[in-house]
Structure formats: structure tokens, C-alpha cells
Amino acid sequence: MSAKKKSNSYGRADLVERLKNKRGLSRRKSVVVVNTILDRMIYHLRRGHRVEFPYGTLKRVRRYFGQRWAIDNDWPANRDPYTIEWELNEAGTRKLNNGRPG
To answer: Distance (Å, rounded) from C-alpha 74 to C-alpha 66?
Structure first.
């Protein structure tokens, strides 16, 4: 007999399942809601806007590749000049540290 373990992941499928169970939506409607939210987040991040969550913020930042990459001719696989950075706020820091301040 196996006990069902509570998942702490927040993948797309997990978000759809949680929305379906907690709000009573069909799976199809749940997928549409999750995809719409993620598409809007991507849209705003690509334009340099910040996306805020209860535990922090996502923001788009420019990556700089130094001369070393050109000298060694050893470029990283992902040369996208931008990346997404996650900033934890105080509530997020407490959550990670099991209730203790950072």
C-alpha cells in the first residue's frame, strides 16, 4: 500500500490539475487558463516588464558575455542576450528558510 505524496512542484500539468480540482473546471478549460496566464507572463517579460508573485518577482535582465568567450572560442550553448532573474521578497525568503528570516 503506497501513501499518496503531496507534490510541491508547479509544472504546467500540476497547475492544470490543481486548477481543475480546486475550481471545478474541466481539464480543457484549466489548460486554457494556465496557457493564457503563462503566455501573458512571457509577453510582458519579453517587453522588459516585471511579473510579480506572492514570494517574489521575475524580471528580464541583459546577459553580458565577456571577451574571454571570444578569445577561447568557447561560447555557451544558449547565447540569448537576455535571461530571466528571480528576486525573492521577504515572504519568499522565510518560506525557503522554514519560517526563519533570511
So the answer is: 11
